[in-house]
Write a structure and sequence with these properties.
Largest sheet: 7 strands, mixed
Number of helices: 7
CATH class: Alpha Beta
Radius of gyration: 19 Å
CATH architecture: 3-Layer(aba) Sandwich
Shape: globular
Mean pLDDT: 86
Helix content: 25-40%
Number of domains: 1
Order of helices and strands: EEEEHHEEEHEEHEHEHHEE
Distance between the termini: 28 Å
Strand content: 15-25%
Oligomer: single chain
CATH topology: Aminopeptidase
CATH superfamily: Zn-dependent exopeptidases
Structural class: alpha/beta
Low-confidence stretches: 270-297
Number of strands: 13
Length: about 300
Amino acid sequence: MNSSKSSPPFVLQSGKSRNVIFETPHLGRATPDELQRHSKLVEAAARRWDNHIDRAGEMMLSEVGGEWIGSVYSRMVVDLNRGPDRVDSRVSPDWPGARIYEDGGVIVPFVKNKTVLNALYENPLNPEEIEHRLKLYWFPFHDQLQARIDAILHRFGHAILISLHSAEPEPEHCQGDMPVIYLGTGNGSTCDAGMLSIIRTVLEKSNIRVISELYYQGAFTTQAYRKDPHVHAVQIELDRRFMKTDAEIKRQLEPLAAALQSVSTGGVGIAPSSSRAKRLSVRRTYIDPLTGDVLPY
């Protein structure tokens, strides 16, 4: 699938009013027209995505409400769940501050096929191309996500951010035909402990195994947006084994929807108290390594 660089790098949908926003940073599989010359990138982009996460996002929006923002472009183009400063030296050795990142950083230089690393580019990318890609595809997504969170905070006073993903569970976590869901909160740092406990309890009562420590503990999105104390952020990894049919998806998502309904707020919201109205801005900044400009993100 090709997409014009003039197209917005996200899709945004709204449900009934609720203080929840779902984001799916690894939904997209598109490669922009301007990057079609990188054939290995195009091939990897079509295959590397969170399987069936579009159906999960649609169901969450329908059952819980709130808003849903998803990526259009593949994580191979730019990984929206990595910070914009995480540029791997194997993809752009001349980028100021570039170094090797185990996960490949915000623009991955390769894909792994078993134990073999297959490079996505024949030659290193120059810093100007990295900067161009971030400005076109990374920043607009996070600008929109921040704007939607700000709107929820203004209306409700607090927000719940759910970063939705799918993954194959670790073999040692699998028990028969029981789905496994990972709740990532930076080992408790990005979400209120009581809220996490409620979500976990509802899922476990529905015969779902929940792992909430050590594995899939969240990356950029949950860690960055939780810097606002009024935002509770959870990265949720759904069990990819149970995403192929509507019945399998409902087996995971109906309990999850019930859990999120129980910890979230709907309706018209509340007027922010004076303490909320005066809360300090926690919008993050990014120093452009090429120009030295300080940009918000």
